[in-house]
Amino acid sequence: QGVDGDASVHDRVLWALHVSGMDDLLKFLASAQAEQQWALHVLEIISLMFRDQNPEELAALGQGPAAAEHGEDTQELETLRQRELAEKRARALQRTSRHSRFGGSYVLQGLKAIGDRDVVFHKGLHNLKNYSHDLGKELRRVPRRRQVAP
């Protein structure tokens, strides 16, 4: 004895036809102009294939609970997409259109400049490790005759 969801003998025969590729052959015979003499036989086979089927169930087969869940998922994705676009627009409005190249000014305490004042550093903090007092100064060219021999 089988369970309620078990396939009947008819369903198993239809599955065997599908696996063997016989359904493709039937579709070819039904649609080919040169095979007109087999049209009534193919029509009878197809009518026997759909013998125990209810037309309403067949029509609703592709639109069952899976289609309802698909619709809900699509609706949820659309709301998330709309929310993301709204956040993106809000961020774009908050940003100014011009880029400020001002990286800030920092006072380096403990490092003296001219006089007794601390050094004011106008570059980004990532450039701080390369800082020297000669930063930005042009190197004086020493004449070749005054250059120190290496």
- For the biggest β-sheet, the strand order reads 1-2
Broad structural category: mainly alpha
What is the gyration radius calculated from CA atoms?
Answer: 41 Å
Low-confidence stretches: none
What's the story with the biggest beta sheet? 2 strands, antiparallel
Written as H for each helix and E for each strand, in order along the chain, the element string is: HHHHHEE
Q: Rough shape?
A: elongated
The percentage of residues in β strands lies in: 5-15%
**Count of DSSP-assigned helices:** 5
Mean pLDDT: 83
Number of strands: 2
Q: What fraction, in percent, of the residue positions are helical?
A: 40-55%
Termini separation: 102 Å
Commentary on this structure:
A hairpin with a 5-residue loop joins β1 and β2. The N and C termini lie far apart (102 Å). This protein is mostly helical. Among the domains are: 54 residues, no CATH class; 29 residues, no CATH class.
Write the layout of secondary structure elements.
Blueprint: H1 9-20, H2 22-31, H3 39-49, H4 55-60, H5 65-94, E1 106-112, E2 118-121
Antiparallel strand pairs: 1-2
